[in-house]
Design goal:
The protein has 478 residues and is an alpha/beta fold. It is built from 16 helices and 11 strands. The protein has an 8-stranded parallel β-sheet. Strands 10-9-11 form a 3-stranded antiparallel β-sheet. Helix 5 links the parallel strand 4 and strand 5. The protein is elongated.
């Protein structure tokens, strides 16, 4: 979160469909992911929406924390101004002052949270994309920040470092990030302009949300940061370039809130990341005031567990309450589906062995899928006849020789017949197109199909006109 936009935060720990977990530090559950919401004195509705069992509120000071705990919530600590303790890359603190600064923050966190080993959210790291080699000031800042986190960890705290942009792998010292992850969680802030997401509809909008959230987590995972130390923060700001951005009507804004919650949950399930945070519930100025904040916060809680808030009592009549539309809901055996047609993971694996490339096999299977829309069924008798023509023309009528060639190519007879059917389908498709080239039509249909496709982990197939007969030429043009 950017300075000036944030005063404090809240962590809502939600167990979802998981069984109750063991208690860990400060009595917090050890389920993953833990859901983390912004709530402090600036969140005027905090007691009504977040003040109940299952919520963990992070706030600076004691009064708000005590009020929330009285209502059943748990509390932890939020520090808005990290730079007070470590400075900035332009003006880093003297390293000699770091231990005392960390001790001071630790004591404040203990007093506020009522826990001797508090969780501490730190807003926010500056210039996370600074490429190496760092200049002297940046190096001093990074060393001070790491030492600060290490000191907090040594005192028994669990720090959460908020990061506003993706580190750039080898350009930004992955070893430093791994050192940070030894003592702190790294929370990547991932915000969206709601109007752009809602305009795409639930399927494409949800896909866009998941792709960016997933990519942000994967940058850290690829550098060796353990998944349990990775967090994601989503935003529901009222002003600025992210969040609501004046989106109307209310039902559209609530649609974004819902889809964002569902997207974060999906990515967390795929990657195993430890925490999901939200931001944007506070009111810091007249410009950031929004009477719909309590409703949006309720929908955010409800989207992941209906028992956390009674959204039906507060949402407008035109709000879409579906929690499945646009989501990835595939059988475990399915890689991708378009309408009633699907690509199985087994077929993708089998054809990868034929094509020698997963991406090539994926593209070929997707080509087959869209072409089946135009020519749905090739009669078994026609496929058998094509097979006989291949055996007669290329194997001198020897079924044994044909089967031996298939075995040498790691192809079953059933797979070979699928390829023959593809070749017959293309011939009939060309007739339908009046002899025009097939490829432009195929590519156009693939592009259209992707707008309705649901694929595991949003791994979409490449748009290419690929034929398996290219890799099994003895089956081409039977």
């Amino acid at each position: 979160m950017k300075r000036g936009l944030l005063v404090a935060a809240v962590i809502v720990a939600f167990l979802g469909t998981a069984q109750p977990g063991r208690a860990q530090t400060c009595g917090l559950p050890d389920n993953q992911p833990l859901w983390i919401e912004f709530s402090d004195g600036s969140v005027q509705f905090r007691d009504a929406v977040f003040g109940h069992t299952g919520v963990i509120a992070a706030t600076r000071g004691t009064a708000v924390a005590q009020s929330l705990r009285k209502r059943g919530a748990q509390t932890t600590y939020w520090e808005m101004n990290l730079e007070k303790f470590v400075g900035t890359p332009q003006a880093p603190v003297d390293p000699a002052n770091v231990p005392a600064a960390a001790d001071r923050l630790f004591d404040q966190a203990v007093a506020s949270s009522g826990c001797s080993t508090p969780w501490i959210a730190l807003n926010e790291m500056r210039e996370p994309t600074a490429p190496v080699p760092w200049n002297a000031q940046t190096l001093q800042y990074r060393n001070a920040l790491l030492a600060f986190l290490q000191r907090l960890g040594a005192r028994g705290a669990r720090p959460f470092l908020l990061v506003p942009s993706n580190p750039r792998g080898q350009l930004d010292a992955p070893g430093w990030w791994r050192d940070v992850a030894q003592v702190a969680d790294i929370v990547r802030e991932v915000y969206f302009p709601a109007p752009e997401i809602v305009a795409q509809g639930p399927l494409l909008g949800s896909r866009a949300l998941r792709v960016k959230i997933r990519a942000s987590a994967q940058v850290l995972l690829a550098m060796g940061v353990p998944a349990t130390r990775v967090g994601i923060m989503v935003g529901f700001q009222s002003i600025g370039i992210y969040g609501r951005v004046r989106l109307q009507p209310l039902s559209a804004w609530l649609e974004f809130v819902k889809l964002n919650a569902l997207a974060a949950r999906q990515v967390a399930a795929e990657t195993g990341i430890g925490t999901i945070w939200s931001w944007g519930w506070g009111t810091f100025s007249p410009a950031s005031a929004d009477a719909d904040k309590p409703t949006a916060a309720c929908v955010y809680l409800w989207a992941r567990d209906r028992s956390l808030c009674n959204a039906a009592a507060v949402v407008p009549a035109d709000f879409n309450q579906s929690l499945t539309e646009g989501q990835i809901a595939l059988p475990s055996s399915t890689q991708c589906s378009v309408g009633t047609k699907a690509i199985s993971k087994a077929s993708l694996e089998a054809y990868t062995a034929i094509a020698g490339s997963r991406q090539t096999a994926y593209a070929a299977l997707f080509t087959r899928l869209v072409q089946r829309d135009a020519v749905p069924a090739i009669p078994a008798a026609d496929v058998a006849a094509a097979e006989r023509r291949v055996i007669n023309a290329r194997f001198r009528g020897s079924l044994k020789a044909y089967l031996a060639r298939l075995q040498a190519s790691n192809v079953t007879r059933a797979r070979a017949r699928e390829v023959l059917a593809d070749e017959l389908r293309r011939a009939r498709l060309k007739e339908q197109l009046g002899g025009a080239p097939i490829t432009p039509w195929t590519l156009d249909q693939q592009t259209k199909a992707l707008t309705t496709a649901t694929c595991a982990a949003d791994e979409l197939p490449p748009v290419k006109d690929v034929r398996f007969a290219t890799y099994l030429p003895f089956l081409a043009r039977p």
